[in-house]
Write a structure and sequence with these properties.
Length: 306
């Protein structure tokens, strides 16, 4: 079974799930010539990955280091378990391993990332993952590998009109408007209509109309679906002294299927007063709706706008 960090969009009465997988098939010739240029090794950076890497374990390597782990499957003789694990911030003072992809593999994946069209006889149906997020599938129809980047959503660059180190309370009206335009576009996509603005509830908060939910430590945040007007109102009320770059990082991380951009949400949300400025800390570690019937509707996925 393949495991990928997922992006959820939760409405008040429904949950929809989208995996970070693009459906783009690229095929070249089916020759088995070796690649003409070196590709990314699967075993980490020059063998520097420690033995026994596990999800959520403390990491002593530099932030952003990715390890590719290939190990025999004890329950499936002749099979293997492949994992990709990244070393990322769990707080400003701690790095931990986040294993964001794992799969049982029937055959021995190539040590180096294959090129599109490279012959793969003997591995038909096998899916192989390579750092950072490239999935290569051996197609029995073509007899060759087809590789694609498994990114759910490409979040554009934030507005250049705002210095990255600008504290949130120091944003001008124009800077708030520019950032909120970026924020809404990152959520809905270029050219799509933004959510309609709605009056605040009796407590001054947004109504729950949808929520982006992160439930793993790089992205333990909830981001409500709001209009640019509501976004600006929330930023105007904020006492969060974090630089705008940290909020942008958190939003991008959640929107990019929990891929730290570059640090994730921990450093932003642990600052006083920052939970509730666009992103709300997922302190309860809410997860998607359980197939057995358990509910994880994030009623706290609201922010103050007046």
């Amino acid at each position: 079974m393949i495991r990928l960090s997922l992006r959820l969009t939760l409405a008040a009465s429904a949950v929809s799930v989208a995996a970070c997988s693009a459906q783009m098939l690229i095929e070249d010739d089916t020759t088995d010539d070796p690649p003409s240029t070196p590709t990314t090794p699967r075993d980490g950076a020059s063998g520097s990955c420690p033995a026994g890497v596990t999800d959520d374990a403390v990491c002593a390597l530099p932030e952003g280091h990715i390890c590719s782990i290939h190990e025999p499957d004890a329950l499936n003789p002749g099979g293997f378990n492949d994992r990709l694990c990244g070393c990322w911030e769990a707080s400003l003072s701690e790095l931990r391993w986040h294993c964001y992809w794992s799969a049982g593999v029937r055959g021995e994946c190539p040590a180096n990332e294959p090129r599109n069209g490279q012959a793969c006889f003997g591995l038909y149906g096998t899916e192989c993952m390579y750092p950072e997020r490239t999935l290569c599938t051996c197609s029995p129809e073509s007899g060759a590998f087809s590789c694609e980047e498994t990114v759910f959503r490409h979040v554009g660059q934030p507005p250049s009109s705002i210095p990255a180190d600008q504290p949130i309370p120091a944003l001008s009206d124009e800077q708030r408007a520019d950032w909120c335009d970026w924020f809404v576009t990152a959520r809905v996509g270029e050219g799509f209509p933004e959510p309609a603005a709605a009056p605040a509830d009796e407590d001054g908060y947004t109504h729950l109309r949808g929520c982006e939910l992160g439930w793993e430590f790089p992205c333990l945040a909830m981001i409500p679906s709001i209009s640019s007007t509501e976004c600006e109102a929330n930023l105007r009320l904020s006492s969060c002294a974090a630089p705008i770059s940290e909020l942008t990082d958190c939003v991008s991380t959640v929107y990019e299927s929990c891929w730290p951009s570059p640090h994730g949400c921990a450093r932003y949300l642990e600052r006083p007063g920052c939970s509730g400025t666009i992103a709300v800390s997922n302190d309860g570690n809410l997860r998607p709706r359980d197939p057995s019937g358990g509910s994880s509707e994030p009623s706290s996925c609201r922010i103050r706008i007046q």
